[in-house]
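Q: What would this complex look like in 3D?
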Amino acid sequence: MDQHHGSNPTWQETARLAQARRDGSIAAVEPAVPAVPEEPPWNVSALPRALLPAAQVAVTEAAPEELVAGLAAGRLRSVAVTGAFLGRAGVAQRLANCVTELLPAAALARARELDDHLAAHGTPVGPLHGLPVSVKEHIAIAGLGLNAGFVAWWHRRAAADAAIVTLLRRAGAVLYARTTEPQTLMHLETSSNLYGDTVCPFNRRLTAGGSSGGEGALLGLRGSCLGVGADIGGSIRSPAANNGVYGLRPTSGRLPLGGLAATMLGQEQIVPVVGPLSTSLGGIKMFMKALLDQKPWLADPSLVPLPWRDDRDWLAKGGHGHGHGHGARRLKIGVLWDDGVVKPHPPVTRALREVCDQLRGRPGFELVDWLPYRHDHAWDILSALYFPDGGAEETAAIDASGEPWRPLSRFIIKEQPGRKALTVPEVWAWTRKRDDYRVRYLERWNATAAVDGDPDTAVDVILCPAGPGAAPPLNHARYWGYTAQWNLLDYPALVFPVTKVDPDQDGALADYEPMNDQDAWNHRLCGLTPFPNNKKIKI
Amino acid sequence: MDQHHGSNPTWQETARLAQARRDGSIAAVEPAVPAVPEEPPWNVSALPRALLPAAQVAVTEAAPEELVAGLAAGRLRSVAVTGAFLGRAGVAQRLANCVTELLPAAALARARELDDHLAAHGTPVGPLHGLPVSVKEHIAIAGLGLNAGFVAWWHRRAAADAAIVTLLRRAGAVLYARTTEPQTLMHLETSSNLYGDTVCPFNRRLTAGGSSGGEGALLGLRGSCLGVGADIGGSIRSPAANNGVYGLRPTSGRLPLGGLAATMLGQEQIVPVVGPLSTSLGGIKMFMKALLDQKPWLADPSLVPLPWRDDRDWLAKGGHGHGHGHGARRLKIGVLWDDGVVKPHPPVTRALREVCDQLRGRPGFELVDWLPYRHDHAWDILSALYFPDGGAEETAAIDASGEPWRPLSRFIIKEQPGRKALTVPEVWAWTRKRDDYRVRYLERWNATAAVDGDPDTAVDVILCPAGPGAAPPLNHARYWGYTAQWNLLDYPALVFPVTKVDPDQDGALADYEPMNDQDAWNHRLCGLTPFPNNKKIKI
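A: Here is my prediction, written as structure tokens for the whole assembly.
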């Protein structure tokens, strides 16, 4: 696969350039990023805390909403906070391989500007004043690279900031770190020939998830408290789940997509969205509010003019869309234990059960079982519509440099049964199936009122697994159903941390009978996954 | 072209069936619909008033919001109002050929139910209680035909009501008339082999516009006061303009499209919308509010959860999105005199001038010129994306019955320079051009602040021609630019009546130089159009 045509670099040469640029950017951080052990343990989650000064640990482990409060009040300086995250991001890179480059010079210059502004005017420039925010690589920052995980695209440079970056800058954010993504962007892992594999800090034999796995691992190691990813099939949620942080896939039409590098631009049957990952729920809400308060729909005609709705009061007020608005009511939660295609691994089911057990004890909540509706059919639609050109653009972008196909690129582009180049009328036929599925699903949503005997309320939210298991071994994230389902429906979806795998509690499934080949495969995976007892790992 | 394969009817036989069904439905109206003159004058707009009893004229010429007020208060009975409109619609059909069928039995039964409900409960069933509403044929009514202007589809029957019809019924509307549409639905006229041409009641040598031309002519003759059309390139607005009534093309994602018959279902690059035509502005607003107050987004996942916004107060309050919200402000109107491709005929320009002259004298308004931005490029995008299969579905639907191609079907499907079957990547490329055009246009919108020297306000609204001229002679509506432009941009667009052609005022253009072939063609059309002096026509 090593090619050399005239003056064109080989893919390996390009990868070395990419990694040298990354390493150089980390070497420029001051004070110097501490070295990590040459042979780190499988679980490196406690290492940054051991390697960094206590003050730096305190700053980087604070919730983003606390940092913003301190920055706006002048109790914290952005230069100090940004420096703290630059250092910890450097450590995170060395432990989980999650960063494509750090931006110490630009970030600290901006931080200093913001500190000066606050000192001069006494007011912050915006709701994210001085907060360091990390950004996935394919989201453009003017003048920097934009490769979407393709070696052949590595030399491309962004002419302008992505629209979401513009909104972040206006809100006062400091952009200091860019994070890894997989070849094609279409893995639920983060594996590329430019940077290799991004790994899970809780067990480096496992994947950090993807495609925003750089963000996931960076946040999991607290090298960032708020970052931006993108999601067309689980790419924000899988890394959030695998790294124990929060991740939101907003509905499409909320946040602007302008300036994202990807193949198949102009495809609108299954659309990507950008959204936040954060170490706190407050960070997610702060991000959405800070951006939507800028009314991005006034500049992007594809967006819907809807403000961020923080409806914490609706339970008390009874003002919900489905209800009749008389007095307080309960939040009605439909629990999807199993999607009917692939049975979740025991720790996932235990996590669901723990959440339900906690909610059952509280007066404001009502739990009902939510039965799956043709999730296998949903995947048929998705896999036909993800690559309506049969993967031609991805194939061209991979083959242009001679780089090898990563296993999960091959899986999603070449090994899906429904995958082929479609004609325009075939795209319409699949789009009609998509729309019909969306209508049927919403009918079921509304019909829960009748099923449950309460004519006043459909469910308010579905609680479900974020994946078929905890983080799998590298190159094994082959079941997208638990996340991609909500992309097909274009529902907003939030992942939040609940628990970790515990081998003492999470045994084998009793009386397991495979439902189908995918299910059997996922079940075998459960046995393959090494579950280290986190408590026993020392550095 | 007369074909007869075995037991299949010829297209002429099907057309005779269609017309017999229509005529039978009108014959069932009681009291009998009055006969019209065997050779009616070119201008028949005054005939219904001359042919019908004064009480019937009074009811059918009332504004829909007045009728609803009377119906809700019990001053009017729905049976009487529905009967009045059934009779006048029958007259309108005989004068302008605008109806596919009347529904006297079903409408009067429903009207009686509503009257009984009000008598029993003292409250209306909804905001349109008892109001007769007309509906374009391809919008499904359960059990009735659904042909989209194709002879071959005439035998199709709707299994269920269209979603918009369900909303109308829930609001209390009485569905009593179905109206004509052109072959393919893709004309700005209303010409089919099932029913022939729908003509303009002010001059029967001219077109009623289209594709909702049946609605337009029916409303123009006051055989309806509120009707439902659909619009993908001007199909609500052209008939509103040609018949002197109001018509609104809402933004997509507002009103549900479920249950509309058309080709190319699943196409989403340029989407159709449904919307109202009315004899009053109040009717348009009432329609939108009555439907959106039902939160149709709870049943249709393609819709946006945005209520109807009646922002009459924002000028006084200064609470507009673009402004900073301090005190009262003016409505800033950008006037597009000419789209830079085809110069409007003199009566259109005079109408614009008359509106501007009236607005200039009022304190709450500010007028600025709005310069066109590449409307020719906009049409290139539209004409590529209207038929991405090269018109294959339309061709099949026309040819299935052996019916002849109507001239404007041929024009829009076979004679557009850019027309061809596209590959999926070609669709993406055009979609990117569409999105880029939308972004550039919005940049100009926002930039008017700078152009105009007022940093606080972009324009609020564009005032522009609803077409390149008044209603043209049959088969001459070949320039879509003035309406289709807003479909490409997906902006809401309202047509309202201003004036009529007046040969004494509307002379030839001075110093006319054609800008291009389309412009020259439109200019010649102006000379061809017979402008009768309405005042001189007697019945």
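A: To summarize the key features: Residues 192 and 299 of chain B are 34 Å apart (CA to CA). Residues 318-326, 529-539 of chain B have pLDDT under 50 and may be disordered.
Q: Very helpful, thank you.
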